Amino acid sequence: MVYGVIEALAGRDSYLDILSIQQYGRNVDSFVTQRVKLEQGAQVQTILLGLGSRVAHTKTESILAGNGASAELLGFFFGEEDQHFSAHTLQDHQAPHTQSDLLFKSALRDHAQSVYYGLIRIQKGAQQTNAYQANRNLLLSKGTKADSVPVLEIEADDVRCTHGATVGPVDEEQKFYLMCRGLDAAVAEELLLYGFFEHAIQRIRNEEL
């Protein structure tokens, strides 16, 4: 059993990148909380990569407490065998002119499962806020399961908030197209998997990461 807590304060007009990689062995259950508070003008990008553990529960919070703060939250999960991933996120807009953008993606095979619960909270004073949340799930086997619950809680009247979630298998037409060009089924599926994650990977600001 592993418990972890990461807390960070992004000061005024600062830039902060946080990368968290979880690749524990399959006999480990992990529970991690990550919380970042953003002051005025701060810009933060958090990247969460989940690969290991038998059960992995993550809680990721971005508290936009300063005028003009901006947070980008990226999550990548790949599960196989009987792995279970659970991700809870919070985009808490407390100040005006703040912006948050979240994209969490998971790909599952065998009997792996994932659960996503994401809350965008816009408090009363957070006028002219822009918040977005997306959760995309790719099911590579019939025994997999993904649940997604995006939630909005809005107390201000001059904001822009959108959210969305998708759960589905590999596109068989795309797979057939690749196989018609000489690729076997496994390689075709691998290429489609790379394509599924590529859009999110391109958003990582740090080239080394």
Question: How would you portray this structure in words?
Answer:
The protein is mainly β. 12% of the residues lie in helices and 56% in strands. The protein has helices at 172-179, 185-201, and strands spanning 2-10, 15-22, 29-38, 43-50, 55-64, 70-79, 84-93, 99-108, 113-122, 129-139, 145-154, 159-169. Strands 1-3-5-7-9-11 form a six-stranded parallel beta sheet, with no helix packed on it. Strands 2-4-6-8-10-12 form a six-stranded parallel beta sheet, with helices on one face. Helix 1 (172-179) crosses helix 2. The two termini are 27 Å apart. The mean pLDDT is 93.
As laid out across the biggest beta sheet, the strand order is: 1-3-5-7-9-11
Give the biggest beta sheet.
6 strands, parallel
Number of helices: 2
Give the topology string: H per helix, E per strand. Answer: EEEEEEEEEEEEHH
Low-confidence stretches: none
Number of strands: 12
Shape: globular
Task: Please indicate the percent range of residues in DSSP E strands (runs of 2 or more).
Answer: over 45%
The chain-level structural class is mainly beta
Beginning-to-end CA distance, first to last residue: 27 Å
- Average pLDDT score: 93
Give descriptors for this structure.
single chain, 2 helices
